[in-house]
Design brief:
two-stranded antiparallel sheet, 9 helices, alpha/beta, single chain, 4-stranded mixed beta sheet, globular
Amino acid sequence: MRLGDGGRSSDLEDRRGEGGGGFGGGGIGGRHIGIGGLAILLVLSLVFKKNFFALLGDGGGAPAAQGPVAPVNDAAEEPEVRLVSRILDDAQATWTTILPKAGAQYRHAHLVLFRDAIESACGSAQSATGPFYCPGDEKVYLDLGFFDELRTRFGAPGDFAQAYVITHELGHHVQKILGTSDKVHAAEERGSEAQANALSVRLELQADCYAGVWANATQATNKLDPGDIDQGLAAAASVGDDRLQKMATGHVNPESFTHGTSAQRSSWFKKGFESGRVDACNTFDSNE
């Protein structure tokens, strides 16, 4: 990608040096984070080799707080911080232009860098949770170590793969602005677990599509390199529910899906990229 370098984004919050504390009994709020149901907790625990069942607490109580975080090597991580900043600023500038065409004004989200664990308006989270968007404070939370996992464990290297991750989470911010996420979360509360999982899949696929819409605008301004879109498609496919479950347990349980299959995720990213339109991302009225 050729996004230029304006230094650190003014929308970036660097909290890598803070201690994250332990998990409260409420766990993480917001289904789109993907920590929903015992099957998903099992998958994440096996994939990342960390105990995600601690998210459930102990009889509603909080486990003991974690120790201090390791010091941040600012010099080593600064190139990646600046890449994150470039992606963040470009994506938000793009949505500031695009979203009024869909009848809404874009407002900037913040992106919070953290290490190991973090407190958000949605509760506590560990780095193994992966990047997530919290609608309560309209912030994206990211541990840079996830990009190592994306490259080595999931086989999705490259700067555009990282851009896909960030713009997917900003897609959830667009959903918050448009009112989509509030409607979906209300419907999840009223429905069964199976219905809630199905709605969560639709919400995640739409965020994938919105990432593709950003990619379309970025290509139109000649900021993409050959192979960038292939990186994005590979990254989307690498985190499909079916692939993660197969990696973790050797079999797949579609009823527990919360994000969509690898094929669905890459397909909706491609649909957003090829159309460049917000209205092409209506995953809720589609059987794909």
